[in-house]
């Protein structure tokens, strides 16, 4: 199967479910539970000339007063942003498991409800460990060079799906199985994601509003990709994933 096939499966699966998928993806993304979730960084680019300008500016008492006032305003926002980042990191793993259930149900033609996003909190420890180890391993590979980090990211991409469908599967096992599953398939997943580039460019002209529909489209396509590379599909006598609310 090619990227176009997975996109077609996603479109067919989302027909009549777009409203729920948009809401579930928006909330899961905000809580760090989607593949596109992430926290940006701020590059201050403090070169020598910039430092000299700051030094001369800070020499003015008026500028110091303004700087202190600005800092007093920013500190609460920075504190709130830091707390939110910690919360997202802590619960992002278990939200990822719940969202994986949601998108797999969409692909499988089963009932996909918004509250599925929060259905896996009984596996909070597994989700947290998976998120922690994934971030750690990707970061360590990225220290070698950018490319190994990207390869590691694609190697572990299927781990949330694997952990979701195997209740007794731990974080290290899910990562190991994902790595084995993605052997020879990393390039295929990359091609699938890059095939959305045109839609991403068009999304810029909507000031990001189009991402409300683009992100579910991408995520359900990834779920269809998992079904293909894992060789699994929903059948009536398959083990059911436990839902706890």
Furnish the topology, listing elements before pairings.
Blueprint: H1 3-14, H2 18-30, H3 48-58, H4 61-108, H5 124-144, H6 146-155, H7 159-165, H8 171-181, H9 186-194, H10 197-204, H11 211-230
Helix pairs in contact: 1-9, 1-11, 2-4, 2-11, 4-5, 4-7, 4-11, 5-6, 5-8, 7-8
The amount of beta strand, in percent, is: under 5%
The overall pLDDT, averaged over residues, is: 82
- In total, the number of strands is 0
Number of helices: 11
First-residue to last-residue Cα separation: 36 Å
What is the percent of helical residues? Answer: 55-70%
Major β-sheet profile = none
Sketch the topology as an H/E string, one letter per element.
HHHHHHHHHHH
Low-confidence stretches: 38-44, 234-245
- Secondary-structure-derived class: mainly alpha
- Based on CA atoms alone, the radius of gyration comes out at 21 Å
Overall spatial form:
globular
């Amino acid at each position: 199967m090619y990227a176009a096939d997975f996109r077609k499966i996603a479109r067919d699966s989302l027909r009549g479910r777009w409203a729920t998928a948009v809401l579930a993806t928006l909330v899961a993304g905000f809580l760090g539970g989607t593949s596109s979730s992430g926290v940006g960084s701020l590059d201050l680019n403090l070169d020598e000339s910039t430092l000299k300008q700051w030094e001369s500016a800070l020499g003015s008492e008026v500028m110091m007063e303004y700087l202190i006032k600005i800092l007093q305003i920013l500190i609460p926002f920075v504190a709130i942003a830091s707390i939110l980042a910690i919360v997202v990191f802590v619960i992002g793993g278990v939200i990822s498991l719940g969202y994986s259930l949601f998108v797999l149900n969409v692909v499988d033609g089963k009932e996909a409800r918004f509250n599925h996003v929060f259905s896996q909190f009984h596996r909070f420890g597994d989700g947290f460990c998976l998120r922690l180890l994934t971030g750690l391993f990707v970061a360590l590979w990225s220290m070698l060079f950018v490319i190994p980090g990207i390869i590691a990211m694609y190697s572990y991409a299927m781990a949330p799906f694997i952990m979701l469908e195997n209740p007794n599967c731990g974080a290290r096992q899910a990562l190991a199985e994902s790595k084995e599953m993605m052997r020879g398939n990393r390039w295929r997943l990359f091609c699938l994601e890059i095939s959305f580039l045109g839609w991403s460019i068009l999304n810029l002209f909507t000031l990001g509003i189009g991402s409300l529909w683009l992100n579910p489209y991408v995520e359900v396509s990834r779920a269809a990709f998992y079904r293909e590379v894992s060789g699994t599909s929903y059948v009536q006598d398959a083990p059911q994933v436990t839902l706890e609310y």
